[in-house]
Amino acid sequence: MNLSIIAVGKLKEKYLKQGIEEYAKRLNSYAKLEMVEVPDEKAPEELSNLEMEQVKQKEGERILSKISSDVYVIALAINGKQKSSEELADSLDKLATYGKSKVAFVIGGSLGLSDEVLKRADEQLSFSRMTFPHQLMKLILVEQIYRAFRINRGEPYHK
């Protein structure tokens, strides 16, 4: 399976990079993982609704430019479906079974994802109704993907 995580913004925090690298290394024996970073749109702290939409639009265009037509897209969105680790594992297993070998997880910037990205998504996934920094979300996501493969192989993993 070819997986990619497409995220807005550059990861700067060393501790997050180390965690992501560790889980990406562990994932190597199960799937090919590519991390894709697209630049975030520079914007002032105080934005009007129109300016917020323009920022999401520009970031969305960058995200969509990284997704080919044969990729199954899972957008991380606060209003998406919440799943347990076992349900995520089952979803990934079904995608592989039905020939969806290219899967992209998309993480938006601080303002979220554009409507165009959400429309392109085959599925919307929420990890919580809480808001997480998108850099931290990369680490949480890669760990959950690794956990999903362990679950699907019936291999032990801490609970």
TrEMBL record:
A GO molecular-function descriptor: rRNA (pseudouridine-N3-)-methyltransferase activity
SUPFAM superfamilies per record: alpha/beta knot (SSF75217)
Binding positions for S-adenosyl-L-methionine per the UniProt entry: L76, G108, F127, S128, R129, M130, T131, F132
Stored CDD domains: RlmH-like
Enzymatic reactions: pseudouridine(1915) in 23S rRNA + S-adenosyl-L-methionine = N(3)-methylpseudouridine(1915) in 23S rRNA + S-adenosyl-L-homocysteine + H(+)
InterPro entries membership: Alpha/beta_knot_MTases, RlmH-like, tRNA_m1G_MTases_N
Predominant location: cytoplasm
GO cellular component labels: cytoplasm
One Pfam family here: SPOUT_MTase
Superkingdom of the organism of origin: Bacteria
Keyword Cell inner membrane annotated: no
Keywords (A to Z) from UniProt: Cytoplasm, Methyltransferase, rRNA processing, S-adenosyl-L-methionine, Transferase
Enzyme class: transferase
EC number, as in UniProt: 2.1.1.177
Subunit structure comment from the entry: Homodimer.
Family according to the record: Belongs to the RNA methyltransferase RlmH family.
Biological role stated in the UniProt entry: Specifically methylates the pseudouridine at position 1915 (m3Psi1915) in 23S rRNA.
Protein name, per record: Ribosomal RNA large subunit methyltransferase H
Organism ancestry: Bacteria, Bacillati, Bacillota, Bacilli, Bacillales
Gene (name only): rlmH
